């Protein structure tokens, strides 16, 4: 099943992809959001999908896509998780996952603009697989880790590179408003290979392919990341693990390629979806 979160005339809602189009219901009618459903387990998700399959069709143009989980408690991003990306960054292959955080204030949905901030022109793209937690847990054994993943989505971990490297911590460069594109859909885990392994992923700017790799090449797979992160903290339904980007980022092109207003940035993972966003300049406050 493929779920969306959206906003429309009746406020925020949850929808389901069907062959006829998206069908959905407002949160005000449902009494809960998508994060609440996935936290109740796979059976509840199946029942919810059946309910939405009979919901009204959402008319094209009458709604706007939100990130599948618009307000996750935790967004945990992984750096240098593809060998060729570590190599192009002149960094040794990590022996332990490089983890940093995003806040949901940085998120935008599909088709919403990525914002190039006024303080920097060095806005970069990063195609990444996002794993969404469905079952809470702490100290999760690696062999049970995938039971805690409800589904997967596509993420563009757009980064303001000069702010990212101003200190040893990447936090500032990864948390500018309007730079974390997420969506368009949450694809339930049962529709994909275990751990979403073996899926081609790609980033394109104005149709030009700049990143192209396969999730099979991750240094730390999804199960390992869930296990390792849960050693430190409780993972909760709706938490998002953004699993790292392959080689080909703009900063390592020759010459570098930076996102600029008017560009169309597309990141895609076969079997999960295409996430497209225009790039706009930050508007100055009056």
From TrEMBL:
At the top level of its lineage, which domain of life is listed? Bacteria
The record's section on SUPFAM superfamilies has:
FAH
Please list which residues make up the signal peptide.
none
Record keywords: Hydrolase, Metal-binding
One GO MF term on file is:
hydrolase activity
In this protein, which residues make up the domain named Fumarylacetoacetase-like C-terminal? Answer: 74-279
InterPro entries reported in the protein's UniProt record: FAH, Fumarylacetoacetase-like_C, Fumarylacetoacetase_C_sf
Pfam families (UniProt xref): FAA_hydrolase
Q: Please verify whether the record's keywords include DNA-binding.
A: no
Which family, according to the similarity comment?
A: Belongs to the FAH family.
This protein is called what? Answer: Fumarylacetoacetate hydrolase family protein
What is the scientific name of the source organism? Sphingomonas oligophenolica
């Amino acid at each position: 099943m493929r779920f969306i979160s959206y906003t429309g005339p009746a406020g925020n809602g949850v929808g389901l992809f069907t062959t006829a189009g998206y069908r959905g219901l407002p949160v005000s009618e449902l009494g809960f959001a998508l994060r609440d459903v996935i936290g109740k387990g796979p059976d509840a998700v199946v029942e919810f999908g059946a309910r939405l399959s009979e919901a009204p069709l959402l008319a094209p143009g009458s709604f706007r896509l939100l990130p599948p989980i618009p307000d996750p408690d935790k967004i945990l991003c992984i750096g240098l998780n593809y060998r060729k990306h570590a190599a192009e960054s002149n960094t040794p292959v990590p022996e332990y996952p490089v983890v940093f955080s995003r806040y949901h204030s940085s998120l935008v949905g599909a088709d919403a603009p990525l914002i190039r901030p006024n303080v920097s022109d060095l806005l970069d793209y990063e195609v990444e697989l996002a794993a969404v937690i469905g079952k809470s847990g702490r100290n999760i054994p690696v062999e049970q880790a995938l039971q805690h993943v409800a589904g997967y989505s596509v993420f563009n971990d757009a980064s303001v590179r000069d702010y990212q490297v101003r200190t040893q911590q990447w936090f500032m460069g990864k948390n500018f408003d309007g730079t974390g594109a997420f969506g368009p859909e949450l694809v339930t885990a049962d529709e994909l290979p275990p751990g979403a392994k073996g899926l081609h992923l790609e980033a394109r700017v104005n149709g030009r392919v700049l990143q192209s790799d396969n999730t099979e090449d991750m240094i730390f797979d999804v199960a390992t990341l869930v296990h390792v992160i849960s050693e430190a903290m409780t993972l909760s339904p709706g938490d998002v693990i953004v699993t790292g980007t392959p080689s080909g980022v703009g900063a390592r092109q020759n010459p570098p390629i930076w996102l600029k207003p008017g560009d169309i940035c597309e990141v895609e993972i076969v079997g999960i979806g295409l996430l497209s966003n225009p790039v706009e300049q930050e508007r100055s406050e009056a």
